[in-house]
Amino acid sequence: MREIQLTLEQARRFLLLKQGLLGEYRFAGKDGALAYVKQAGCIQFDPVDVCGKNAELTLQSRVKGFRKTDLQALLYADRMLVDYPDKELAIFPAEDWPYFAACRARSYAHGRQFAGLAELEDRAIAYIKANGPVSADTLPIDGELYWHSAIHWSGNWHKNSKAARSVLEQMYTDGRLVIHHKQGSRKFYDLAEAQLPARLLQAPNPCSGEMEHIKWRVLRRIGAVGMLPNRRSDAFLGIPMTTEQRNLAFEALEQEEKIIPARVAGLKNALYARAEDSCFLEQALQENAPLKSRCELLAPLDPFLWDRKLIEAVFAFRYAWEIYTPAEKRKYGYYVLPIVYGEGFAGRLEAAADHKTGTLHVKHIWLEESVRKTKKLMHAIDAALGRLARFNLCGSIVEETSEP
User: Fold this and answer.
1) Phi and psi of 346, rounded to 5°?
2) Contact status, residue 91 vs residue 55, Cβ threshold 8 Å
3) Hey, which of 199, 339, 372, 394 has its CA 20 to 30 A from 310?
4) Range with the lowest mean pLDDT among 9-18, 116-125, 146-155, 257-266?
């Protein structure tokens, strides 16, 4: 497929248009939340809740009128979305369940190596059938079990772990259980057959082999970010592939005309966009087309930020999530949200919601050195903070300090 030539400005415009962060809102309400997740393939879940959880913040920045209850309904009432490992802990469309058949099979085979696990699984299934959804605290299986998860993100490399938790997590990654609902950080599990339709559970794997699966996931991650280079990237976390397999996947996807190569002025490596997103490329190339400027606050693990080297190269914006950085070594703060304004990044801010008092505390606002502090910009940031406050059901905003 013929290579497209882009200026940095055009590349920025394309990425923001693709992400739904520039121009009029393309997504609205619960249906809009589902539509965005389908476009992204998956969004990352993280349980930390400072001013909204990561998945909720991802949707709040793009979906007009989004409420936290919309995501809960899509996950646990409508069952249009599922939470299952993809890019780390993730949320993705339930219709993609068949594509992860090989992942579930590997997890099941991994679980067979632990002595006594199968017997405990039978007990857990019988209990759930008789009593309904359970958590690790309510499943009556005592003791500890030598076990660790097959999923690398879990951190469960224990010599001994709570048996009830181990059993539930193993059957969850096997796909025999799904999350029924959550109470705070507690997960309640139910049988997959009770929550997902038979057409999904019985559907054959759409991928004919390992390489087809890798191609599908690589294409999906390109769609999540907008454009990606063919190199090692955090955007590909969770895809079990070698460098050679990644190269083969990109080569095949280009030959099949599923991805479009683009050369961006000033960037060494070619970037690749999905062919189905060519409409956004065409829009980005229309220099004189007016686009509504927006100000949005991004989640720390937003799909747009999955390849931070790309964001730095295209937008000259460097971002690191410092939540696990010791306080004395942080440059900014514990839970900092990047600020998108117009066709670039204006800075970042740290905010925390106090649900007891209904107050959103704005601890810091840092503007980029190249960004002028204007009334228009600060009004736009105030409006974005107002949306964040309403999203968190906070009736007031207290700005503690500002450091432009």
Assistant:
1) -90, -20
2) yes
3) 372
4) 146-155
**Nearest CA among 189, 240, 193, 244 for reference residue 213:** 240
Statement: residue 385 has pLDDT above 80: yes
Mean pLDDT of 225-252: 97
Mean pLDDT of the chain: 93
Q: How far apart are CA 215 and CA 30, in angstroms?
A: 30
Write the CB contacts of 230 (distance below 8 Å, at least 6 apart in sequence): 246, 247, 250, 269, 270, 272
Check: CB of residue 365 under 8 Å from CB of residue 403: yes
Structure confidence at residue 157 as a pLDDT band (50, 70, 90): very low
CB-CB neighbours of 246 under 10 Å: 18
The domains of the chain, with CATH numbers, are 99-196 (1.10.10)
Residue 240 — φ and ψ, nearest 5°?
-75, 90
pLDDT tens digits for range 303-320:
999 999 999 999 999 999
Sign of CA dihedral 299, 304, 307, 312: negative
pLDDT at 402 over 90: no
- The answer to whether the CB of 103 falls within 8 A of the CB of 85 is yes
CB 310 within 8 A of CB 11: no
